[in-house]
Amino acid sequence: MKRQTPKRKLQYWILSLLGLFAAGFSAFILYTSWHEDRSVMSVVTNLADGSTGTGKDGPYPDRPEYQLPEETEARYDYEKMTLNGMDNYVLENEQTAEKKIIYLHGGGYVSQPNPRHFQWLAGVQDQTDSTVMLPVYPKAPQHQYEENFEKLVPLYTQTLENTEAENIVIMGDSAGGGLALALAQELDRQDIEQPGDIIMLSPWLDVSMTNPGIQDLTSVDPFLDLEWLLNAGASYAGDADLKNPMVSPIYGDMTGLGDMTLIVGTHELFLADARKFSEITDEKNIPINYYEYPEMPHVFQLQDTDEGRRATQQVVNIINDDADDTSTTD
């Protein structure tokens, strides 16, 4: 066996260190991407220009006026419309769209939408007779939950003016999934006609994070961080009780709402409350479409994987009212 020369040993250690650095850096990029519901490219871009995207307030980004990412603007025909001081990005169907999708993006109530949201929605719109609307709703810590309803309820009622309620879909991922349910509950409190569908993708249903089952999931969730979520949730709630249904809709009234669909992975912290939500609706004989995907992480539905594509197809089928073609994976 050949002995390693000092030079070869040095080369070996340099390559080993570079390999460890590359692995660690890649893990950081992936973690930050999922943790903040941002695209990998946006994280890399922020690092390149010296910005982490987390801002001076810890996990909360600085809040300049939101601009549609250049790559998204170049690729898709989203039109910016402003209602009641809130920007709303609209992707019109080339034909007369029967369905209207109000999509509430994720990001822990503190982060803005990322390119993947727009890309995924364009794919959904392409498979449905729909117009997609993505409102850039107010974010914590500068704004709290009340302002979201002050902005989103008028958006919904304006949509009702030219669209039948049964043809409106309120959908969201992560924090946006919880907000979708909370918005439907607020519409019910105001006696406003319910949307046809409420679709929740890996929803954050309880910002108090007090479900005992959450602790058992910390070892399998590769992306969500409990402390970060607690800080973000408290910032969003402001002075309100963390179990106020307007911030934690799992404590709200589930009766009388539109048709509900929840899709979640088994390797995410939000699984515990998703199962609790399913149990609550079952006890009250409220029908829902509930799907669990084994070993899938947070917001896998938006990712270009076999499971992500299957979940997306379920969403498309529900929007298209293909009730017989929404089977889950086992």
UniProtKB/TrEMBL annotation:
Domain Alpha/beta hydrolase fold-3 as annotated: residue spans: 101-301
GO function terms (MF aspect): hydrolase activity
Matches recorded under InterPro entries: AB_hydrolase_3, AB_hydrolase_fold, GDXG_lipolytic_enzyme
Pfam families associated with the record: Abhydrolase_3
Membrane-spanning ranges: 12-34
Residue ranges of coiled coil: none
Key words, A-Z: Hydrolase, Membrane, Transmembrane, Transmembrane helix
Keyword Cell inner membrane annotated: no
Protein name: Acetyl esterase/lipase
